[in-house]
Amino acid sequence: MEGTQKPRMLGWSIAYIILLLSIFLPPLSLITAALLMVPVLIMYVKLGTRRFLVHYVVSLAVVYFVASLLAGWLGALLVSVSIFFLPPVIQMGNLYKKRAAARTVLTAGTLTLLGELLLTLVVCFMFGLNPVGSMKRFMMESVQTLPAQVQSIMAIDMDTLVQLMVQMLPLYMIGFSLFYVVISHWLARKVLVRSGESIPAFKPIKDWMLPKSFVWLYLLALILEMFVKDSRSMIFTVLLNLLPLLMAAFAIQAIAFLFFVAHVKRWNKTLPIVGILLLLFFPPAYFMFSLLGVFDVAFPIRDRMTSK
After folding, report:
1. What single string gives the DSSP state of each residue in 85-136?
2. The pTM is what?
3. CA-based nearest residue to 20, from 4, 36, 40, 31
4. I need a surface site. Which of 57, 87, 94, 263 has the fewest CB within 10 A?
């Protein structure tokens, strides 16, 4: 086993070097950037701390040397990107070694990455940088590049639109953190299980169920939305970020309910698959799915179906 593990870990080191060097290549960056945590997570779980550090440091040294040949600043930037993703890898890897539940791993990894994003913002402001202002200027310039016909049919003022998009920065950060951790967990777990590791998986999707407290939180947010009109108030900003998260959570809950129905009725998975396609490609159905998810959590629909 030890003899076969060495070339495999060397292969993962090479894969990590290639991924890091390719994240600034436009055709590949959308795919490779989402995979950055996977090789490091696999090496962290399969290797001891000392051997992992050797593989990791050597990989960064190779990346720094190659990237610096292309541009002097590029090597330091790639190393910084790699180190940025290291804390969630360590957090998730330690939980893997403890055989923690998949939900715990997902929560810990997401919170760690989100905390790093917040810390990065704080550090930027401490050094006199203003990433939020830069983001606002970038959005204004992007909107102004749209054709005049498109700008004229927008039902909202450009300044107001950009301001709302900037206020949704917490939502973007949460979505970014969740996306990276989910992709990394899903792929890394598959590889690690095949290599002999025992890592708990998520419950089957048909068994997913949100806490009932989410229903009350959702109702409270909807009620507050009707009364809070000041777009620059703190409550408005909280609702602007909270409601899309809750709607997404309940929409996923609705998909879980469709899988449950297909299981109880002994149907094939056509129903939930059609639901997923509608959710992805027919935005008007989004609210209806979130409403179905609310009913699934709030009322004992599943118990009645099971008893029948």
Report:
1. THHHHHHHHHHHHTT--HHHHHHHHHHHHHHHHHHHHHHHHHTT--HHHHHH
2. 0.85
3. 36
4. 57
Residue 253: other Cβ atoms inside 10 A? 21
Least confident of 27-31, 34-38, 89-93, 216-220: 27-31
Structure tokens at 14: 């090479």
pLDDT digits (tens, 9 = 90+) for 210-261: 999 999 999 999 898 888 877 778 888 888 899 999 999 999 999 999 999 8
* Structure tokens given for 38: 């996977």
Contact 229, 261 (CB under 8 A): no
Tokens of 69: 């040949």
Give 111's pLDDT tier (boundaries 50, 70, 90). Answer: very high
d(CA 218, CA 247): 8
**Which tokens go with 262?**
């297909």
Place of tokens 């779980």: 45
